[in-house]
Amino acid sequence: MKKLTLFVTPLVLLLTCMLACTPKKESERKDPIAKITTAGNAGNFIRIKGNGFSTNKLENTVVFGDAKAVVLYASNDYLLVQVPPHKAGVVPVTVTVGDNPSNSLMFEYNSNAMLAANLPRR
């Protein structure tokens, strides 16, 4: 009986570890954003590379800090968005596909972009 217990106990532990380490389904992952442009100005068009995006652009919500971006194009592995107006500084960028929010990557709004655009040319 003792030999049986010595065999069953490690087997149960092994099965428990294997089940606990099973990778999440693709739809449950929270890291679809792999790469974005790290700095720019409001109004710029940027490409967000990653995975798990919806091909229906209306099902992807992209937020820069607290400002919602316009999604212009969507595929499974990238989104083309227009950077929304926001004050200068660094903000997190998050993509939500349906009800699944992504990881966040940082984007820096340039401080003098709007000022430079409004200066008269000589």
Automatic annotation (TrEMBL):
Residues 1-20 form the signal peptide. Keywords: Signal. The keyword Signal applies. Residues 36-109 form the IPT/TIG domain. InterPro entries: Ig-like_fold (IPR013783), Ig_E-set (IPR014756), IPT_dom (IPR002909). This is IPT/TIG domain-containing protein. It comes from Chitinophaga jiangningensis.
